[in-house]
Automatic annotation (TrEMBL):
UniProt name for this protein: Small EDRK-rich factor-like N-terminal domain-containing protein
One Pfam family per UniProt: SERF-like_N
Renumbered residue ranges of the record's region Disordered: 1-66
Organism field: Clathrus columnatus
Annotated family: Belongs to the SERF family.
Biased composition (Basic and acidic residues): 1-13, 24-54
InterPro entries the UniProt entry points to: SERF-like_N (IPR007513), SERF1/2-like (IPR040211)
Domain Small EDRK-rich factor-like N-terminal: 1-36
Entries under PANTHER family matching the protein: SI:CH211-39K3.2-RELATED (PTHR13596:SF0), SMALL EDRK-RICH FACTOR 1 (PTHR13596)
């Protein structure tokens, strides 16, 4: 079990490591917006595909229930 100064030292070390990892990951507003739009478009396409599959399955739904 760590105690006293060792706990504080480990906490500082972890904070420095986390800061170094997150330092290069800043995303600009423009790139964030593009990514959000691309994600939304992918979800829309996925939803259209799912609706098309559901429409072709017919009124039975294709599943079995007990």
């Amino acid at each position: 079990m760590t105690r006293g100064n060792q706990r504080d030292q480990d906490r500082l070390k972890a904070q420095k490591k986390a800061a170094a990892v997150n330092k290069g990951r800043k995303e600009t507003g423009a790139s964030l917006q593009r990514r959000k739009e691309a994600d939304a478009e992918a979800l829309r396409e996925k939803q259209k595909k799912k609706e098309a599959e559901k429409a072709t399955a017919g009124p039975g739904g294709g599943g079995t229930t007990k």
